[in-house]
Write a structure and sequence with these properties.
There is one protein chain. This protein is mainly alpha-helical and 269 residues long. Helix content is 56%, strand content 4%. The chain is built from twelve helices and three strands.
């Protein structure tokens, strides 16, 4: 049987089948005597980007044939985005799994845009992908609003920090073994560094983060679908300044509160 490459990062993005679902898929394939849907590979690396479960079944039943097809991607992030958007259009998934897929696609698209703006072709011209932003694609094709996509991106950034500190947590959350509150995970991205260790530990253990550990939410400005005019610009700039001012005010209060907890701090204040 042909050996295929498995990239753990790609595999982790696939919402896992339940034991019953996997068994049913295996029984269908054994009954058919063939794996009807091709296993999809990234042409540059020959790694599986779709069909991990089918390949696992093929390994257990080497007599059953399977086919592969290859897809071209500009970079790893394009492969990640494709995997996520493809999974969103398939099986029933949980709210957390949907958030992870949307968030990973959103973050991958940001990197793709960053790279495209800096890569040059053989003539020295900047390369542009010419694609819509992921949040727009998801909104149009997958029935998810753009604000959800933006928050999902923040959620997976927080989740990546938890995973870095406590490996294996991502998979537990993705398969429903560990329940978390999305607000707590998102809060990680704007939390003071000194408070993160305890907060990361709490999430990895399925516990809530203390309320006073959660900093002010990052201000979001409504997306524009038409061209800016000067009044729009002034209005949104004003909103942003007010949001930043309130965030700074809260930060000062929290810092003073921490200083006041020591005798030396009280005297200094």
């Amino acid at each position: 049987m042909r050996e295929l490459k498995i990239n753990p990062e790609f595999q982790s993005l696939i919402p896992p089948l339940t034991e019953e679902e996997f068994h049913q898929l295996e029984m269908n394939i054994v009954s058919d005597g063939i794996i009807r849907d091709p296993i999809v590979l990234w042409s540059a690396t020959q790694e599986i980007i779709d069909g991990h479960n089918r390949y696992k079944i093929a390994q257990a039943h080497p007599e059953i044939p399977f086919a592969t097809i290859c897809m071209d991607f500009y970079c790893k992030e394009e492969a990640v985005e494709w995997i996520c958007l493809n999974q969103l259009g398939r099986r029933n998934i949980t709210d957390i799994q949907k958030t992870i897929l949307v968030g990973k696609a959103h973050e991958a698209r940001k990197v793709i845009g960053w790279q495209a703006e800096r890569e040059r072709d053989e003539h020295g011209h900047y390369i542009s992908s010419g694609k819509q932003r992921t949040r727009e694609i998801i909104a149009e094709e997958k029935g998810v609003n753009q604000e959800f996509a933006k928050k999902a991106g923040r959620f997976v950034r927080g989740l990546d920090e938890v995973e870095a500190a406590y490996p294996g947590t991502f998979q537990k959350i993705n398969n429903g073994e560990l329940e978390v509150t999305k607000k707590d995970v998102m809060a990680i991205t704007s939390m003071p560094e000194e408070k993160k260790p305890e907060a990361l530990k709490a999430i990895a253990e399925g516990k809530r983060i203390p309320k006073d550990y959660i900093n002010t939410p990052i201000a979001t400005i409504p997306e524009h679908t038409s061209e800016y005019d000067i009044d729009d610009f002034r209005s949104e700039l004003s909103k942003k300044v007010i949001a930043l001012d309130k965030g700074l005010e809260l930060t000062v209060i929290l810092v003073h509160k921490e200083i006041a907890e020591t005798e030396e701090g009280k005297e200094a204040l």
